[in-house]
Automatic annotation (TrEMBL):
Protein name: UPF0173 metal-dependent hydrolase ACFPFO_21060
A family per Pfam: Lactamase_B_2
Family assignment from sequence similarity: Belongs to the UPF0173 family.
Keyword Flavoprotein listed: no
Segments passing through the bilayer: none
Gene Ontology terms, MF aspect: hydrolase activity
Keywords from the UniProt entry: Hydrolase
Region of interest (Disordered), residue spans: 220-240
Metallo-beta-lactamase domain: residues covered: 7-202
Length: 240
């Protein structure tokens, strides 16, 4: 499985021959890539409807959309997506097969209003667990699993459900504070998830979320986690 961070919360994931793009937002200072230069994804996954997560979605409208039904309906109307997973989207707790990948949607503790000419609810915010095998209660040491937490605060589901049952090997965790977890709570999330690798995301995009990832790395160590922190440069990749 290959991961590429394009700044903020935008992560491209390759599983076999399937390419997924999470929260496309290329108007951020960490990336030098224009949407037209990105390898065309098969699936676009949207954690929620805030502008800094869907801002570049229209450039990838030929892909199949994965989102909750309310956000999927909005993205179809606003950005022109024609194909939506399941015909109408998916919802929290569900798992769908996306080419060579299995995508499980989990809750995130955040908000999800869309700023248009009127207040628009986009359903619940979410995170995604992406695996190359279908998740079951039988542990599979051969599978590779990645968790994109979306915009979230610390939640016990990371310790009680996502970590022990969905068993991510790597996670992308927001560290920017102010709108999401900061370094300290993000480090606790890493420990609870029991991952081997972690990518800090959702930081250094705007002044309120400026962070030094070295502070996050120190917090991960203080939490007692053995996870390796990968503070990637924008558009840098990682294979897990």
């Amino acid at each position: 499985m290959e991961l590429t961070w394009h700044g903020h919360s935008t992560v491209a994931v390759s599983v076999g021959d399937t390419r997924l793009l999470i929260d496309p937002f290329f108007d951020n200072p960490q990336t030098d890539v224009e949407p037209a230069e990105v390898e065309e994804p098969d699936y676009v996954l949207l954690t929620h409807g805030h502008a800094d997560h869907v801002g570049s979605a229209g450039a990838f409208a030929d892909a199949t959309l994965v989102a909750v039904p309310e956000l999927a309906a909005y993205a179809q109307e606003e950005y022109g997506f024609e194909e939506v997973v399941g015909g109408m989207g998916m919802n929290l707790g569900g798992t769908v097969e996306c080419g060579d990948a299995y995508v499980t949607m989990h809750r995130a503790d955040h908000t999800n209003g869309i700023e248009t000419d009127y207040e628009y609810s986009a359903g619940p915010p979410a995170g995604f667990v992406i695996s190359d095998t279908k998740p079951t209660q039988v542990s599979d040491d051969e599978s590779t699993t990645f968790y994109h937490a979306g915009d979230t605060g610390l939640m016990t589901e990371m310790r009680e459900v996502i970590g022990p049952y969905l068993e991510p090997d790597a996670a992308a965790i927001p560290i920017g504070d102010h709108f999401t977890m900061g370094p300290m709570q993000a480090a606790i999330a890493v420990d609870w998830l029991d991952v081997d690798h972690v990518l800090p995301i959702h930081y250094d995009t705007f002044p309120p979320i400026e962070q030094d990832p070295a502070d996050f790395e120190r917090e991960v160590e203080a939490a007692g986690s053995d996870a390796e922190v990968h503070a990637l440069s924008g558009d840098e990749g990682l294979e897990i």
